[in-house]
Amino acid sequence: MAGMQPPNYQNAMTTAPPNAALSAFVGGPDIFGSLPEILVTQEFAMIELCGIEAKNRYRVAAPHSPNYTFLFAQEEGEACERICCSPCRRLTMNLHAGSDKLGQVMLTMEKTWACPMIPCPLLLHPGAWWLFCPWMAIAYKDGGPQFTVKRNGQVLGSVWDPPMPIFYCKANSIIRDAQGRALFECGPNSLCDAGMCCPCCADEVVPVVSITDRKQVATITRAMLTCTELCTKTNRFTVNFGSVTDPDQRALIFAAAMLFDLQYWEQKD
After folding, report:
1. What are phi and psi of 164, to 5 degrees?
2. pTM higher than 0.70, yes or no?
3. Rg for the chain (alpha carbons), in Å?
């Protein structure tokens, strides 16, 4: 309808239960309801305390209303890969409307089999070469991990974690549209900085820059871990969309944040 104003997300979330407010923004072109920033919180799984990798689950909310979950992400994949080689595993991450996996799937992210970069100091020890050299060969045999992002079965684009030189010690990802054109780069961030090596002492800030003019357009920030998060092996991060307003590009930046978490922030035993 001409002249219709977009819904006031903050008012909806503070005056109505989350499920009653969902149709105001999740069902539109932008699944994040034009929010400038979202908070993504990983849920705790008791089985992780036994050293077994659980299916990851995340709650998505507005930073000013962290208890009102309007999107819920649930991992699906093979148990054997998840338990035996969790950093490299294939998986599908479904983003559901609402506060659990019973809601409509709004976004699907499919990850290929590939392993993350290894901090280069580990490669300086000759005794580790027999383990890490095969790891590196397996990690990038297909060109690095990739997230294919779909909505209603239609491919919106992909997020690619490209191979780096073996001693470059950096983590980054390239966001591409459905035609394969590079739009944004996340990072690169050092694998040896404070936020990576000691996450309980510092935030990890990942800039998202435009490929065309190298200007920063968005920011992904993994918050400094609390003692509880450190013990329960969970993460909490925000995605600030900055100047990006295109709904598909916002979905791709969210997917890039999810891939960064799975590849580099997920706490391993």
Report:
1. -115, 155
2. yes
3. 18
